[in-house]
């Protein structure tokens, strides 16, 4: 369990690797990784648990409000949370301010062309949210989930025609959010085309805030 309070946000456009970064944070720092869907399906007992919290927006590239179910977790004492891809708008950031004070914000900056390629090659298992990429993380059998054998689907907003619009929408909405956290001195930006190359810098940053349970080399 984490020994100090830490509340962080991981920001980045669609396809930037926010979920992967969040999973690695959970593994490296002994936290529990939760998606919003998982949180709603499962009961969290034993207050004070350390978590990495992954909050997804609405479908089709929309922007969700703060789910009420997450509020006790974000405000609990000794609770470490890393909210992935949230807040996505200035209004959400202001709402989050009324709930808790963030310690740091991680912003992932990925080139536009890289994001277009990633999103267009992404397929998901609808029931679990598992994500595959046909270029660098394909399923064992094309079009089939590795664990369940059920079919994969491509989200409508991951199809090539929709990707550019999603990225423009994110850029316009996220700019004032990023400026807000930059003005507070808590924004940490990381640029690159590969999560594996960005991750060591994220690991170093978080290691200065909370003790890791495994080394970067083990991740």
TrEMBL record:
<keyword id="KW-0418">Kinase</keyword>
<dbReference type="Pfam" id="PF05191">
    <property type="entry name" value="ADK_lid"/>
</dbReference>
<protein>
    <submittedName>
        <fullName>KAD4 kinase</fullName>
    </submittedName>
</protein>
<dbReference type="GO" id="GO:0005524">
    <property type="term" value="F:ATP binding"/>
</dbReference>
<feature type="domain" description="Adenylate kinase active site lid">
    <location>
        <begin position="122"/>
        <end position="157"/>
    </location>
</feature>
<dbReference type="Pfam" id="PF13207">
    <property type="entry name" value="AAA_17"/>
</dbReference>
<keyword id="KW-0547">Nucleotide-binding</keyword>
<dbReference type="InterPro" id="IPR000850">
    <property type="entry name" value="Adenylat/UMP-CMP_kin"/>
</dbReference>
<dbReference type="InterPro" id="IPR007862">
    <property type="entry name" value="Adenylate_kinase_lid-dom"/>
</dbReference>
<comment type="similarity">
    <text>Belongs to the adenylate kinase family.</text>
</comment>
<dbReference type="Pfam" id="PF00406">
    <property type="entry name" value="ADK"/>
</dbReference>
<dbReference type="InterPro" id="IPR027417">
    <property type="entry name" value="P-loop_NTPase"/>
</dbReference>
<dbReference type="GO" id="GO:0004017">
    <property type="term" value="F:AMP kinase activity"/>
</dbReference>
<keyword id="KW-0808">Transferase</keyword>
């Amino acid at each position: 369990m984490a020994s100090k309070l830490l509340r962080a946000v991981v920001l980045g456009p669609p396809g930037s690797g926010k979920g992967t970064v969040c999973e690695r944070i959970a593994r490296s720092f002994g936290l529990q990784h939760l998606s919003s869907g998982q949180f709603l399906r499962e009961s969290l007992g034993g207050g004070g648990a350390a978590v990495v919290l992954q909050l997804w927006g609405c479908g089709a590239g929309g922007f969700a409000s703060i789910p009420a179910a997450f509020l006790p977790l974000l405000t609990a004492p000794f609770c470490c949370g890393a909210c992935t891809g949230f807040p996505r708008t200035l209004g959400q950031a202001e709402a989050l301010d009324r709930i808790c004070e963030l310690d740091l914000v991680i912003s992932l900056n990925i080139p536009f062309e890289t994001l277009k390629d990633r999103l267009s090659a992404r397929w998901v298992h609808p029931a679990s949210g598992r994500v595959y990429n046909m270029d660098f993380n394909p399923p064992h059998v094309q079009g089939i989930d590795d664990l369940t054998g059920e079919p994969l689907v491509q989200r409508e907003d991951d199809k090539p025609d929709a990707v550019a619009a999603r990225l423009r929408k994110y850029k316009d909405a996220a700019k004032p959010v990023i400026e807000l956290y930059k003005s507070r001195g808590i924004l940490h930006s990381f640029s690159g085309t590969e999560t594996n190359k960005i991750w060591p810098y994220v690991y170093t940053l978080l290691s200065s805030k909370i003790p890791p349970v495994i080394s970067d080399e083990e991740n």
